[in-house]
Amino acid sequence: MSAIPLPQIGAVPVERGDAARNRVLLLDAAALLVAERGVDAVTMDAVACRAGVGKGTVFRRFGNRSGLMQALLDHTERELQQAFMFGPPPLGPGAPPIERLIAFGRARIAMVEVQGEVLRAAENAPEYRFGGPARALGIAHVIGLLRGAGVEGDLDLLASALLAPLEASLVLHQVRDLGMTTERLAAGWEDLARRVTRC
């Protein structure tokens, strides 16, 4: 009797061509709804209608609205992820760790300025806020930069503390309600990063 092969850790499931097309179609429809009518307009019904598919397709793909918002967050973050993993310095490889850390924070703040409502909605989904793939990748990236800068201590906690000021809900509150500029927030992030790394 042959053993049943186990899935590999970190393996990405292969999607059929039509499933991959549907996923992109649905996420693009959700992003357009956010841009046109705000994040509260992103319901499973509205996304299905905008994408021209049945509501069941949206539920089968994402499970619920929280799953849809997390997938939309991952979709919108892909460009930033590509930039910090493979792009030019200082955000990408090739610059000193502290310069990359500062560039990462500045890029996150700029991203909130453009995609803030999507990011806020995903952050507010309890089952995804601290466990989603986008956050996990961000934490791992910041830990790697802290390690590269020679920072000692509990790097997991330090990375979480450094990411906290970059959360969309806080950045949107500071900009919209408190009247802070994104330039001020970026300068504050740089000051924090330099204090943590003592650079």
TrEMBL record:
DNA-binding region in chain numbering: 43-62
Pfam families: TetR_N
GO molecular function, one term: transcription cis-regulatory region binding
UniProt entry keywords in alphabetical sequence: DNA-binding
Domain HTH tetR-type: 20-80
Gene3D superfamilies per record: Tetracycline Repressor, domain 2
Coiled coil regions in record: none
Record-linked InterPro entries: Homeodomain-like_sf (IPR009057), HTH-type_TetR-like_transc_reg (IPR050109), HTH_TetR (IPR001647)
Name used for this protein in its record: TetR/AcrR family transcriptional regulator
